[in-house]
């Protein structure tokens, strides 16, 4: 009898030992899976007290500058906030420029107009005369293996007075097949007085703008194909700029796709081979919005490795339209 008890005790001990080992093994597997997910998924981290960065795995995706950014040697009146820079390509190359010498006010991926009339006073959010963006709060900051969303509320300020409420959402999709999509949703509401927006005379720029980093072999492609000339006041659903980047010596590019719900679709553009794609909405004809009216504009920034033909771009734009439920 005593021997039987010893055998049973031994079996129980063995079972307990096996259970503990199995639990530890499952914990280890879970930790490895979590670690793997952290290496392949998205994550946010502060770059400074003025900027937040987004990574997918160990690759940088973008930096959003919510604080006021300035640069030594640049006039103080060119300090600005509320824009994306750097925006990165799929291999870590920097696609955007900030404070370029030819246009100190250009700033990565940004949204601004050269003529902003509030009531009977005119300002320029484009080159920062009399009006500015100011960060107010984060609406959403979510990152997982499936994507990342960064949403914020800003104000347009004249002095200490808020004149326009702004909401921006950046929704970042995982990189796949040599491309990445970043959906940009913008909302503006005049709150002080009626607001009139107008693009630059004879050029139309004013709205979403993407200023590119220095490079060579620049190719700008639109639905009609490769363009050799700069295009002012041209109505387009999309445009792409590809180049060989000076810093990293790789070729890649980015396109802006306009959502079919965009006001006055397709809007005007200005393209420049020195390295900028400018939406021109509402273009050279002013548009006035009463207090409380919500202005919504949606876009996709489509980043690609290597060159992109008009056919490849048209396919990607078609996929964007299909996601939007548009024909």
Attribute tags:
327 residues, alpha+beta, Beta-galactosidase, Chain A, domain 5, five-stranded antiparallel sheet, 2 helices, 45% strand, globular
Number of structurally distinct domains: 2
The radius of gyration computed from the alpha-carbon positions, rounded to a whole number of angstroms, is: 25 Å
Number of strands: 22
Instruction: Write down the secondary-structure element order.
Output: HEEEEEEEEEEEEEEEEEEEEEEH
CATH fold label of the largest domain = Beta-galactosidase, Chain A, domain 5
Q: Which structural class matches the secondary elements?
A: alpha+beta
CATH architecture annotation name of the largest domain? Distorted Sandwich
Helix content: 10-25%
Query: How does the major sheet shape up?
Result: 9 strands, antiparallel
* Number of helices, where a helix is a run of at least 4 consecutive DSSP H or I residues: 2
* Low-confidence sequence ranges: 1-38
CA-to-CA gap between the ends? 83 Å
The average pLDDT score comes to 90
Give the CATH class of the largest domain: Mainly Beta
Strand order of the largest sheet: 8-9-10-11-22-18-17-14-15
Strand content: over 45%
Give the overall shape. Answer: globular
């Amino acid at each position: 009898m005593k021997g039987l008890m010893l055998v049973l005790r031994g079996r129980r001990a063995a079972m307990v030992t096996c259970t503990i080992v199995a639990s530890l093994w499952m914990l280890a597997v879970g930790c490895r899976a979590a670690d793997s997910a952290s290496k392949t998924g998205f994550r946010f981290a502060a770059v400074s007290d003025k900027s937040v960065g987004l990574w997918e795995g160990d690759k940088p995706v973008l930096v959003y500058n919510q604080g006021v950014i300035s640069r030594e040697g640049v006039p103080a009146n060119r300090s600005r906030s509320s824009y994306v820079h750097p925006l990165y390509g799929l291999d870590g190359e920097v696609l955007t420029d900030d404070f370029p010498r030819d246009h100190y006010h250009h700033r990565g991926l940004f949204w601004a107009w050269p003529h902003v009339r509030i009531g009977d006073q005119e300002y320029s959010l484009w080159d920062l005369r009399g009006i500015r963006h100011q960060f107010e709060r984060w609406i959403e900051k979510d990152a997982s293996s499936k994507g990342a969303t960064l949403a914020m509320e800003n104000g347009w300020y004249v002095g200490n007075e808020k004149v326009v409420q702004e909401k921006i959402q950046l929704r970042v999709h995982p990189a796949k097949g040599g491309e990445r999509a970043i959906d940009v949703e913008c909302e503006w509401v005049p709150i002080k007085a009626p607001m009139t927006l107008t693009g630059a005379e004879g050029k139309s720029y004013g709205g979403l703008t993407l200023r590119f980093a220095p490079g060579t072999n620049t190719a700008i492609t639109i639905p009609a194909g490769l363009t050799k000339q700069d295009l002012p006041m041209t109505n387009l659903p999309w445009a792409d700029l590809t180049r060989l980047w000076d810093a990293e010596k790789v070729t890649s590019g980015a396109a802006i796709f306009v959502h079919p719900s965009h006001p006055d679709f397709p809007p005007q553009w200005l393209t420049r081979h020195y390295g900028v794609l400018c939406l021109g909405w509402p273009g050279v004809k002013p548009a006035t919005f009463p207090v409380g009216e919500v202005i919504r504009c949606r876009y996709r920034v489509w980043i690609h490795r290597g060159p992109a033909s008009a056919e490849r771009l048209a396919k990607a734009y078609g996929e964007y339209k299909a996601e939007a439920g548009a024909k």
